[in-house]
Amino acid sequence: MKNQKRVIYNLIIVLTVAFLSLLPVSLLGNKQASAADNSKRIKIVFWHEMTGPAQTQLNEFVKQFNKSQSKYQVVSQFEGTYEEAVQKILNTHESNTSPAVFQSADISVSQLYHSGYITKVQKFIDKDKSFNVNDISSVARAFYSQKGELLGMPFNTSQPVLYYNASLLKKYNITPPPMNPSYSDITRVAKQLYQRSNKKVKGMTMEVYGWLFDQLIANSGNYSVNNQNGRLATPTKASFINSGSLKAMEWIQENVKSGDFINYGSGTNASANEMAAFLSGKLGIFMESSADIGQLTLGMKNQKLGVTYYPHADGQKANGVAIGGAALWISNDKSSEVQQGAWNFIKYLESAKNQATWQKATGYLALNKNSKKTKTLKNLYKKNPALKVPSEQLAKTVPNNSNSGIFVEGIVQERIILNTALDQIYNGSNIKSSLTQAEEAMNSYIKNNNRANGWRY
Amino acid sequence: MEEENNLLDAKKQNILENSKKSILANKISVKKNDKFYALLFLGPSLLLLILFIFYPMLKTIYLSLFLTNGNGQNTVFVGLENYVSLLTSSTYLASLGSTFVYVIGVSVLTIFLGLLLASTASKNVRGSVFFRTIFSSTMGVSISVSAIFWLFIFNPSIGILNQVAAFFHLPILNWSTDPNLAMISVIISTVWMNLGFAFLVLFSAFESLPLSLYEETAIEGVGPVYRFMHVTIPLISPTLFFVSIITLIESFKSFGLIDLMTAGGPNNATNMLVYQIYQNAFLNGNYSQASAESVILTIIIAILTFIQFKYLEKKVSY
């Protein structure tokens, strides 16, 4: 009996202490909410997938936007990788946790278009006379458009480019490749580098990455899937085998055979290895997103970085490459007032000044044509002319159905399938048979996806 | 008198029967109470199991019979088509094959090396305490840390392994990019990761071995190999059995190291079953296919565990 009483007393004491310790927390919470006076503002939940310096800058933009007006309060939330985020967006639609505006990557355009969950930004562009959409890069807009309507607003944008170690080339007395190089230009430099360094420096690499393969096809003016990359109608078949892809893969295999090509495999591991080798002077040339430019200039302190346009086949003009990166989308499950706030936020991010700041902070390309007139970008280009190359490539490209991305669902799957084929080709397999296997795998994926969506297949 | 006697007998019998009945009734009531208490105490865990294990399991089977559309909804009922397409797809079968290579490689090497280390560390020699700590230390290393430093070791350009090879004029190997070598490098790092646990458990089994038996075998003049095979192994067989099952199941489920080191590449060489499920469910949003893959994986693990219990356990002497 005595013991029982003691237990009860102890319990009461513990509970009282717990209650008392929680009390000030709850009082404080109330105070904070009233102090900020955000209750009158309309809350705009913004989901993004940016990390590192890009995240810091994005949060800075959010802070500045909230300060610049008193009607809306943008709340930014980090949601992991692009692939994870798009699943969350689709799964939370019409729940109270879903975002009003979100960032979603190049791979999800078709999926979001067909989801029926978004309000096309074209709707706001048509109404808003203060915003001139022609200021925004036409190649980037073409990527996120369907049937002449802009679906999401391009935001963080990159382009594939070719990097070379200019100091290394100078050391071995090799003429650098031209600004708009052909395959044979690159082969020449890679071979010379490999031979003149006594095989100590590898000439070139291209990561096993379906995106880079698709870009080689785009630059040749061909299509990765039928119906002109899905722009004319729902795609029903992959078309990985075309004159562009065959020439590109023959070019790679030629370099593999002569030993100047090194294969780093696929995945983040591969890009890290590639970068490490390039920075330590053991690799001369590689192709990757222009988004790497910041990291490269930082890493190459005593060496000079060279940048050129994405390479193209010999005897043929470059068609231009598609953009990479992500766009900002508006959900249609929020009130028109909230959607308007989301649009105002997007408009704010697209201004010439903010786009210039964005490029300086992150390496993503400024999409506003007026950004290059800003002091920020002028100073940046003066300090490092190499940074200008991707922007020029973007500005020079004329959009068409070949270089505006692939409008098909399951691009993640497409990349995995293509990586398998690239792996095989790099290891010496027959190009046509590897790509045929990839086509078959993608065809069955497209067929099942079209069935599941109730489309023609 | 006889009638009276008869009456008495009848009464006695009545009483007897009644008492029997009451005992029976009591028994039944006890049983009823038992069931009530059993339900009361098992109820919460049963509820949790139903909610988090059985319901998802059944739902997974259900989902695997549909096609998933772009919004992640299951729209078209296709029966067993997902299973058929999986079991006829060359990539899936290849991944099945590589999973088996990986699992067998990891399990055998982990147990073999674990035994080797444990038997060495159990010898009472100078510094053995130090080595015990070193051998079990991989348990304290997180997967991401070990993945990163193995990546540095295997890096084709700046990795230690290739630098050492270059120094001795040995051939330079592309560890993480050559399909066969990538599998070996993933196996090596997984074995290294698992070794700490296997060592610790096996070592504790070695420590509990009765000394007297060893003294007897020493007197009998039995050689060390014979003693190890016929005395030590049977004595630690329950622990060995436990370690082998745990290692097998764990290596089937291993995900972190593969995600960080190879992400399933190169050329799908390290694309294990679990990694494919992750890719399909969380990167592709193809829930139905991922569900079908999960069901197949569950069946495989269940069969293997069953075989282990059926055949291996017979050799275990408790």
UniProtKB/TrEMBL annotation, chain A:
<keyword id="KW-0574">Periplasm</keyword>
<comment type="similarity">
    <text>Belongs to the bacterial solute-binding protein 1 family.</text>
</comment>
<dbReference type="GO" id="GO:0055085">
    <property type="term" value="P:transmembrane transport"/>
</dbReference>
<dbReference type="InterPro" id="IPR006059">
    <property type="entry name" value="SBP"/>
</dbReference>
<dbReference type="GO" id="GO:0030313">
    <property type="term" value="C:cell envelope"/>
</dbReference>
<keyword id="KW-0813">Transport</keyword>
<dbReference type="Pfam" id="PF13416">
    <property type="entry name" value="SBP_bac_8"/>
</dbReference>
<protein>
    <submittedName>
        <fullName>Carbohydrate ABC transporter substrate-binding protein, CUT1 family</fullName>
    </submittedName>
</protein>
<dbReference type="InterPro" id="IPR050490">
    <property type="entry name" value="Bact_solute-bd_prot1"/>
</dbReference>
<dbReference type="InterPro" id="IPR006061">
    <property type="entry name" value="SBP_1_CS"/>
</dbReference>
<keyword id="KW-0732">Signal</keyword>
UniProtKB/TrEMBL annotation, chain B:
<dbReference type="InterPro" id="IPR000515">
    <property type="entry name" value="MetI-like"/>
</dbReference>
<dbReference type="InterPro" id="IPR051393">
    <property type="entry name" value="ABC_transporter_permease"/>
</dbReference>
<keyword id="KW-0472">Membrane</keyword>
<feature type="domain" description="ABC transmembrane type-1">
    <location>
        <begin position="96"/>
        <end position="308"/>
    </location>
</feature>
<feature type="transmembrane region" description="Helical">
    <location>
        <begin position="290"/>
        <end position="312"/>
    </location>
</feature>
<feature type="transmembrane region" description="Helical">
    <location>
        <begin position="182"/>
        <end position="206"/>
    </location>
</feature>
<dbReference type="InterPro" id="IPR035906">
    <property type="entry name" value="MetI-like_sf"/>
</dbReference>
<keyword id="KW-1133">Transmembrane helix</keyword>
<keyword id="KW-0813">Transport</keyword>
<dbReference type="Pfam" id="PF00528">
    <property type="entry name" value="BPD_transp_1"/>
</dbReference>
<feature type="transmembrane region" description="Helical">
    <location>
        <begin position="36"/>
        <end position="58"/>
    </location>
</feature>
<keyword id="KW-0812">Transmembrane</keyword>
<feature type="transmembrane region" description="Helical">
    <location>
        <begin position="129"/>
        <end position="152"/>
    </location>
</feature>
<comment type="similarity">
    <text>Belongs to the binding-protein-dependent transport system permease family.</text>
</comment>
<dbReference type="GO" id="GO:0005886">
    <property type="term" value="C:plasma membrane"/>
</dbReference>
<dbReference type="GO" id="GO:0055085">
    <property type="term" value="P:transmembrane transport"/>
</dbReference>
<keyword id="KW-1003">Cell membrane</keyword>
<protein>
    <submittedName>
        <fullName>Carbohydrate ABC transporter membrane protein 1, CUT1 family</fullName>
    </submittedName>
</protein>
<feature type="transmembrane region" description="Helical">
    <location>
        <begin position="92"/>
        <end position="117"/>
    </location>
</feature>
<feature type="transmembrane region" description="Helical">
    <location>
        <begin position="226"/>
        <end position="249"/>
    </location>
</feature>
